[in-house]
Design goal:
Elements (H helix, E strand, L loop, with lengths): L5 E5 L5 E5 H13 L5 H10 L3 H14 L7 H16 L11 H16 L5 H15 L6 H13 L5 H14 L2 H14 L5 H9 L4 H12 L42 H5 L4 H8 L12 H14 L6 H15 L55 E3 L8 E8 L8 E6 L11 E8 L1 H17 L11 E6 L2 E7 L30 E2 H7 L7 H17 L9 E4 L2 E4 L22 H13 L1 H14 L8 H15 L1
Parallel strand pairs: 3-7
Antiparallel strand pairs: 1-2, 4-5, 5-6, 6-8, 7-8, 9-10, 10-11
Length: about 625
């Protein structure tokens, strides 16, 4: 990766020093924020290793992120960058390390940023606008968002906050045509501006939200609520920088090792360290009105781990939510592909007949695939004519889509027609794979057939829905009695289960075990828990996490069982993962005390199982293993 490459600094008198690219980029930005002339040394290190263009890319970010109060400073940096390209003369970017004029252009831009007033207020304003979008439930299509922004632009009041909110909606959709129309609308609003074309060019190479916000500051300069940005003619960059005055060699300071560097990440430096140390700026011309709110929200996101406190991750989460609400298929961001290198085709010499090929590479070894068992009965899949999530009323997220996890909601099922579950509270999860949905449905059917008052194994009514090529799990909501409230440490996690309420409040089993002395747990719950452990162990259900066991009153439900056939592990019989050694011992004690009941439970399952003859041989083999472990 670029950030991990090694840079070599060859200073005067044979001084040689090694640096890491990511740390040099970081310290360059930190020194500019503090107004320190040491930034010139780090810019020279990047130039000497052929990374002058990368340094200019970072200077563009610093211009609109850390020195945005001087609005027209972008024109100064762009002027220096054009001088750099002119001196380069069409050669490769790495050739700039041999051209002194390229170094002078880079140092002039760096010096202009060191001398400029600093403030990160624009970045904080964007953060607060993203937070408002997260909390809002209304969804606009790209065309509607563009129309709303054009209307805000025509508004005579010229409020910066409302314009930024409207523009951010358009930018998050990341539609090329709409984003182009967005900049064209601003160009038509002020066609004589020399700043807008610069910011538009910069937005195409990254940092589009910041470029957009800087452009809106310029267009909203008559807004009386806007802080005291500087809109005057930009200062001229220094004619030349005396290279001999730059320090011969420097070490990476500790304050540059923040969460964006490998060493800072290893030291577990997060958002709090970044705002306290790394984001410090010198000589702010006015108090930042948005700093406290932005810092507080990012700290909440980091502590709750509901979403990564990165602007790109939040924008991606918002985009997925909007696409789902509008019934649109998720759009994967397009990435540029490198063109294949042009090379001459060299004929391959074929080996003689009946002889093995010479220097043939051995085939790649694939990882062993877990043998997932298919349910022995046909699935009942219901076809939908639209995204099932659109039929939920009063929906509450219980799981926000994150990485590979699909979203899950609880709400009122509001389907048209004569649906027996209409107007009932349901749990909807998806999209999931077809095998996962069908497996969960079959497991609940199996539990229903094995359940009895003496040997309880509670099942959930389950339906499998399909829309286009996707599959969804629909269940009746068994969380009646749960209390929900906004989570204070993460606004993206919309609900939280309060485990400390009375007996009628549903709890996650893991939380119940923490709150209840183990010796006071009722016998009925212990037996239901042992039945769930035996059921999962028998069918090879890999998920043994106690957060997927729900308890309310005298009942336990085992949920989220979507993979069967997981191989037997090398740990002791019937032990459960994600638990402490103390609870493993308690589980062994319960098994010893209830051994005869568990054996009678297995015998009941053997007689009551309607699918016994159709079970795969691997399932029957596991039955033998579980029975033998229980009788040892």
């Amino acid at each position: 990766m670029f950030a991990r490459r090694t840079l070599t600094w060859e200073g005067p008198q044979g001084v040689e020093q090694k640096y890491v690219t990511g740390e040099v980029i970081s310290v360059l930005q930190k020194e500019i924020r503090r107004g320190q002339p040491a930034a010139l040394f780090w810019a020279q290190v990047l130039w000497q290793n052929g990374y002058a263009n990368a340094a200019f890319n970072r200077l563009k970010v610093i211009t609109i992120e850390d020195a945005s109060v001087c609005v027209r400073l972008a024109e100064v940096v762009e002027h220096c960058y054009q001088a750099f390209l002119k001196a380069l003369g069409g050669q490769k970017l790495t050739a700039s390390r041999h051209i002194p004029a390229c170094l002078q252009a880079l140092l002039r831009a760096t010096q202009a940023l060191v001398d400029a007033p600093k403030s990160r207020c624009l970045n904080h304003a964007l953060t607060l606008q993203r937070r408002q979008l997260v909390d809002r439930s209304d969804v606009l299509t790209p065309a509607q968002a563009l129309a709303a922004f054009q209307q805000e632009l025509k508004n005579s009041s010229g409020c910066f906050a409302s314009r930024l909110a409207a523009a951010l909606r358009v930018q998050i959709w990341n539609d090329r045509a709409t984003c182009r129309d967005l900049w064209q609308a601003m160009d038509r609003h002020e066609p004589s501006s020399t700043l807008l074309p610069v910011l538009e060019r910069w937005s195409k190479t990254g940092n589009a939200p910041l470029c957009l916000a800087q452009a809106l500051v310029w267009l909203s300069r008559k807004d009386p609520t806007l802080p005291a940005f500087q809109f005057s003619t930009p200062p001229s960059p220094p004619v030349a920088v005396d290279v001999s005055q730059i320090q011969p060699v420097l070490e990476i300071p500790d304050y540059a090792l923040d969460k964006h560097t490998a060493r800072g990440h290893a030291r577990k430096r997060g958002v709090e360290h970044f705002y306290a140390v790394g984001a410090q700026v010198a000589h702010e011309p006015f108090p930042d009105p948005w700093a406290d709110g932005a810092r507080q929200w990012y700290l909440e996101l980091e502590q709750s781990k509901a979403c990564s406190p990165k602007s790109k991750e939040i924008a991606r989460m918002l985009l997925e939510r909007w696409q789902r609400a509008l019934g649109m298929p998720p759009v994967t961001p397009q990435t540029k592909r490198k063109k294949p290198a042009v090379s001459q085709k060299i004929p391959i010499r074929q080996p003689p007949v009946n002889q093995p090929p010479v220097n043939q590479k051995p085939p790649k070894r694939r990882k062993p695939v877990v043998d997932v068992w298919s349910p022995p009965c046909p699935a009942a899949v219901e076809v939908c004519h639209q995204d099932p999530f659109l039929w939920l009323k009063e929906a509450i997220h219980t799981q926000i889509p994150c990485a590979w996890k699909p979203p899950a909601c609880v709400g009122v099922w509001n389907t048209p027609g004569s649906d027996v579950w209409a107007q009932r509270r349901v749990f909807l999860k998806g999209p999931v794979s077809r095998s996962a949905a069908v497996t969960q449905q079959w497991l609940n059917r199996l539990k229903a057939s094995l359940h009895s008052p003496v040997f309880p194994l509670h099942a959930m009514e389950t339906r499998v829905l399909s829309w286009e090529t996707k599959f969804y799990l629909l269940m009746l909501d068994y969380s009646a009695g749960w209390t929900t409230e906004p989570q204070p440490k993460g606004p993206l996690t919309l609900t939280v289960i309060k485990s400390g309420a009375g007996v009628e409040c549903s709890k996650i089993w893991q939380a119940y075990l923490r709150l209840t002395p183990w010796e006071t747990i009722p016998l009925a719950l212990i037996r239901q828990y042992l039945a769930i452990v035996l059921f999962r162990h028998w069918l090879g259900i890999s998920d043994t996490c106690h957060r997927n066991i729900l308890q309310r009153g005298d009942r336990l439900w085992s949920v989220d069982e979507t993979v069967m056939g997981h191989p037997l592990k090398d740990h002791p019989a019937l032990s459960v993962g994600h638990l402490t050694h103390a609870f493993q011992a308690q589980l062994a004690a319960w098994l010893q005390q209830q051994r005869s009941w568990c054996q009678a439970l297995l015998e009941h399952w053997h007689q009551a199982n309607p699918y016994w003859q159709a079970l795969p041989s691997a399932v029957l083999e596991r039955w033998t293993v579980v029975t033998a472990q229980l009788t040892e």
